[in-house]
Structure formats: structure tokens, C-alpha cells
Amino acid sequence: MTLVEGLRVRLAEDLALGEAVAGEAGAVVGFLSLGAGIEGTVERVDELPESHEVREYLRLKALFEDYGHTMPAASRERLEAGIAVLEPQWAAHRERGKQVTVRVRLDNGLVLDGAHQDVLTPL
Fold first, then answer.
1. Please, what is the end-to-end C-alpha distance for the chain in angstroms?
2. What's the CA gap between 32 and 18, in Å, rounded?
3. What is the pTM of this model?
């Protein structure tokens, strides 16, 4: 699902946001939650950047593919070892797909910021 600014969305599941505190002693008296079905409008869509490890894997892989055949054997082996170390992070990144968070202004006036796109459904 692709969310864009201005799209009307509905909260797909209940969200527990935090504890409600009362008095100077800071006693917890409950928690704040948003119920599934609340509607709102997407104000901003943010793509989370790739991790350092993923960027490094892509850099090393490109280096290997472009120049690996011209490298001395020892250098090529070190490069292959570096790629192998970063392979699990790359696989996890591919499996997760693009990470997107959104800022949604809910109809009740609350703003939900940094919400993962999977908790919202388009109307």
C-alpha cells in the first residue's frame, strides 16, 4: 500500500500511546489509547533511510562487481569477506521492504506522527 499526502486513512488497530499521570507524585492513573476505526488525513510521508550496514553492503557489492576481476587475489578475498559479513543485514532489509512512516491528523484533533504505514488503511 502506498500512502500519499492528503489521503484519507483509517486506523486499522488499537494503539496504546502511553501512561496518564496525575498529581505531583506522578502516580499512573491509566493509559491513553486510540481505538481502531478513527479516521484522519495523511499530512506527511517519510521514507526511513537505509542503515549504515545496508549502504556499506551496496557499496562493497558494487565495488566487487565493477572491479573485483582486476583486484589482486588477497584484496578480492577481503572484499568478499566484507560482503559476506554484511549479507544478513542486506537480506533482512530486502525482506522488510521499504520502511515508511506517516504523520496523520486525526479527525478528533490528535496528531499521530511517526506511525508505521501498516497500522493505517486507505478509505
1. 12
2. 5
3. 0.60
